[in-house]
Amino acid sequence: MELDERVLKNGEHAVFRLRALYRKYGYAQYKMSKFEEYDLYVQNKDFLVGDGVITFNDTDGKLLALKPDVTLSIIKKTTDEEHVLHKLCYNENVYRISGSTHTFGEIMQTGLECIGEIGVCETAEVLMLALESLETIGGASVLDLSHLGVISALLDDTGADEIQKKRLIACIGEKNPHGIREICASIGADASLTEKLSALVRVYGKPKQVYQKLRALSLGEKAEAALAELETLTDTLDAIGVGENVRIDFSVVNDMNYYSGVVFRGFVDGIPEGILSGGRYDRLMRKMGRRSGAIGFALYLDLLECLDRRAKQYDADTVLVYGDDAEPAALLGAVRTLTEQGASVRMLRKYPEGLRCRRLMAFQNGGVVTLENND
Amino acid sequence: MKTMINVALPKGRLGERVYAMMEAAGYECPSIRENNRKLTFENEEKGVRYFWVKPSDVAIYVERGAADIGIAGKDILLEYRPDVYELLDLGIGKCRMAVAARQGFVDDTERTLRVATKFSRIAREYYAGRCRDIDIIHLNGSIELAPLLGLSDVIVDIVETGKTLYENGLEPRETIVPISARVIANKANFKFKGDRIEEMMDKLSALIR
After folding, report:
1. How far is the alpha carbon of B195 from chain A, nearest alpha carbon, in Å?
2. What's this model's pTM, rounded to 2 decimal places?
3. Which run of H or of E encompasses A303?
4. Is the ipTM of this complex over 0.90?
5. Terminal C-alpha separation, chain B
């Protein structure tokens, strides 16, 4: 049977297209269990987007959790071998506290992970796939790219302790220059460094323009090395013709205890939060006792409900009302004929009050008559 | 046609002052001064649409993207922690979040401190930072009444001049954090209207300095 694409919701549509996209680049689909031992999340609590995990006891008393995250499970299941590059993609439901409602929710997540020896080629491929994923969803989209090496180099220079660094990172994430100035002043950081940090959160735009502005700031050797890495990547994306929607934005700050290097976030016009999030998470790998590097991203597909919020006009397409005397085979035959013509037919003995349908039909004397057409 | 920037203004005196700043920055919308029951006001030529919302709701409108930018007190941002950009400190609506108690109150550190407040999160984090065991009493208004009736030992609330406190036999003690009005922006909408929003911020910050 051929699939009628009209029946697919935005999210479902995207799932199929994204799966096809990742498959094209050799990413293997990975199916996971819905549960995971709670221990895995306790050890890496900060890696999870929210604190909340739904837990329950298994029949043997073991504490399990409904998966709040996929990446940790994938890392656990891959082995650490030299010269092996794992390329995996997934489509799973995860359970976590969602950003704007602050309550537990089921989130449909699709993404991919590339685990092994990660260089420029692998990183550029993942970024390319992130960009193409956004394109798949349709509409205007933007991929914000940052490099944590730039920020951590500057933060180290401020002489801030861990708590102050955390506060500074929060301000960077908020594009909050006045907050940065306040904290820097309280720790007596160098004035030119303060200005560099607050300038960094304000620069936003296409890579070439941003690099030009940043060069004028002379950020120091370490930060500039990170910047050069970023430039190689954006140049590569430009060279293959997918760099149009890339923006540099240093306010993308994933947790530095887990992420290092390139981090990114994707936005689609019409969706009020980031729909794609990813980055290089070598530090998480170390914490989990792995030597290899890793990069990946996830898309939160339930957010696609925000798109295409046109008011529904009808509860049903065609309603076919029939009487007690209707001959079953003739009635069902008539319904089948109508569906073959492309209609969606709801067969009902009595027309319910308040139901709005596009077309009301009746089955009378062995035939179908149209009573009302609201087209 | 210019893309519209949706601005959530906090109802009340602060909102009026913010609108005056917006007007001075070149984003006027004369219809807002008319006395009518309209809920939204727009100036198509300037590309802005304003709406008044309850001050504590501004962050929700912005976080959910119904407003591109909004003006909220730092108190609201610290209490609700919306995932938004905080682009600018407008330097108006200045006050502080403070602990206040009856005049002459001595904190008995052997007992749990009862704290009445509208700002539970701010109060909890402040006392957690000093390892003080507290009992939060969440109230929605007339916080000053709590210590007077023995409902709480102290209150955590916004203090402007401290006049209301003194008139009621209370006094401000420690300052938790200074407060002022901040411009916040929806992160996703900023990606698609960033140039216009940045231009607005530049004009507004020129007024502050």
Report:
1. 9
2. 0.87
3. none
4. no
5. 32
CB contact under 8 A, A274 and B188: yes
Whole-number Å distance between alpha carbons of B62 and B82: 9
Which residues make Cβ contacts (< 8 Å) with residue B107, sequence separation at least 6? B101, B113, B153, B154
Q: Which of B85, B86, B189 sits opposite A272 (nearest CB)?
A: B189
Q: Which residues on chain A are in Cβ contact (under 8 Å) with B65?
A: 271-273
Domain boundaries, chain A: 9-140+269-312, 142-245, 315-373
Least CB–CB distance from A273: residue in B87, B185, B187 = B187
Nearest one of A372, A366, A363 to A317, comparing CA atoms: A372
Domain spanning A9-140+269-312: CATH superfamily = Bira Bifunctional Protein; Domain 2 (3.30.930.10)
Residue A206, chain B, CB below 8 Å: the answer is: no
Count the helix, strand and coil residues of chain A and give each as a percent rounded to the nearest 5: 40, 25, 35
- Nearest CB neighbour to A274, from listed B87, B187, B192: B187
For residue A145, the distance in angstroms to the closest alpha carbon of chain B comes to 12
CB spacing of B187 vs A178 below 8 angstroms: no
Closest-CA residue of A relative to B194 is A204
Q: Which two tokens stand for residue B14?
A: 């602060």
Four-CA torsion A156, A159, A161, A164, nearest 10 degrees = -90
Q: pLDDT digits over A53-108, tens only?
A: 888 999 999 999 998 888 888 988 888 887 889 999 999 998 888 766 678 888 88
Edge-to-edge strand ranges of the sheet holding A28-29: A28-29, A86-97, A104-116, A293-300, A276-280, A262-268, A141-147, A246-249, A204-205
